[in-house]
Amino acid sequence: MNTPSGTANSGAAGDIRRIEVALRDHGYAVHIGPGARRLLPSVVRDLGARRVVVVTALPDADLPDPGVPCHVVRARDGERDKTLATVEEYCRAFVRFGLTRSDAVVAVGGGTVTDTVGLAAALYHRGVPVIHVPTTLLAQVDASVGGKTAVNLPEGKNLVGTYWQPAAVLCDTDHLATLSPRDMLSGYGEIARCAFIGAGDLRGLPLHEQIAAGVALKAAVVARDERDQGLRHILNYGHTLGHAIERATDYAWRHGEAVAAGTVFAGRLAGALGRVDDRRVAEHQEIVAHFGLPTWLPSGVCAQTLVSLMRRDKKGLDTADGALTFVLDGPDGAELVHSVPESVVRSALAAMPTGPEPTAGARPDPA
Which residues does the UniProt record annotate as the domain 3-dehydroquinate synthase N-terminal (predicted)? Predict the structure, then answer.
């Protein structure tokens, strides 16, 4: 399935790229490049916000200046804090500050921060504007764009959430220099899977171009299907098994690492169903391996556990008949495939090697 690329052009601030997310009733820009966070005062001014609450996982010295009076709320990044309790904590901080619908919220951090703060902003006073300043590769290329906000339950990932589009997204690539190799590795997982959903092979491109390609693809898909009624399902490529791996390892595997293994599995499953040939199956393995990402399943986790977790995941359960559903490659590109036989799923799982928790030793250097 071919998808149009997003609208990308050079911004007014030097090397910063601007990609428009053009929705039916509203839209916003994603700014990508060094120093993008310095655009925050102009974004706040354009919103007409008098004050902001900045929810951040960064130290004070690294916070962007919003250009208006602000209150700083400390956040924690990581799946263990992606909970309803965290959302309540943020909302109560908004109350103490006296935040109104004429003000705004700024989320500064990784995917957990943008997800939880986005959900808090959607719920507080039934919706206040939120600006995302993603500081991790994973959040810049995927999590902060598209308006999905959600938190986890003990039963599964992202089971409680809503759609709340940001007013703007500022992807400052300078933040990436501060990340650990493992955090960078996780972000590459979302970049690798883009090759199979319309972005093409991004290997060899500078990192900022890889981010822009991923964002442009997502912007184009979201513009056509904001609320997951059809086309947007392709963005879940590799995520059904990926979420199961995260849960099965108690989040010892990072999101992008698990999605990478899920992408390899998706290629194998598509091959087993006769949707793609052996060359295309091998391409899944080669692209994921190029980024230093895991092409194996976690050792010590049985197939039954993974299948059970995939059944609980909102991306994997076919509510019509209880069968498993996957986004899989095929003659017309990636598409949602219903009622995949469990026996084929188990065989594809059994064909994958197992191994330890990933490390970041083989990742490419940022460019």
Answer: 75-184
